[in-house]
Amino acid sequence: MTKAFLYETHLHTSETSACGKSSAADLVEAHYEQGYSGCVVTDHFFNGNCGVSQNLSWQEWVEGFCAGYEAAVIAAFDLDFDVFFGLEYNYNGTEFTTYGVDKTFLLMNPDMMSWSLEHYFEMVRAYGGFIIHVHPFREEVYIPKIRLYPDLVDAVEVENLHNAKDAYNQKALAYARRYDLPMTKGSDTHDVADICGGGMVFETRPKDIQDMIEMIKKTRY
To answer: Ramachandran region of residue 199, left (φ > 0), alpha (ψ -120 to 50) or beta?
Structure first.
């Protein structure tokens, strides 16, 4: 039997995300115990539901933002469990998880909060990053309108297990198929008491986040 490797692709820690209910260490342990091979920590960025104080220098803010991810790495040190870095970027309620950037990218771009959305996409891609439009059809009070960017995004999250209605996922699936975009699935985990069991299964274990990006691009999942 071929071994499968299950990864949570959309996860928030209490260290960094204001909506996070569980610590990075508790989330790592809980996912490991449930058979996951790893996770991508995608805490809310400065322009979203971030819990890091805005009254800090850029370097201090970046240190605070990376605290959840770094705590997860430490928690997984003695486990057979991978932790990859990501973030959830917010544009007036429209959100994108971003893979392939890192702490260095954030530190070297202290002006990034003034970037247009298009420039953010351009800079991320130039760094080797990958952008996923998550829960694109979710309807909530913090989302003033549905915005779609099929010519800009690299992939679409077609199932988010924290969407209030499955219709949002069905619309996302149809959207990804229409534009022939790679698809992802995530639980949008915030709490160890509410791990949905979502994520993505890969037949070979990603060596790092860039390897996972290539697998998603080539639909090897």
So the answer is: left
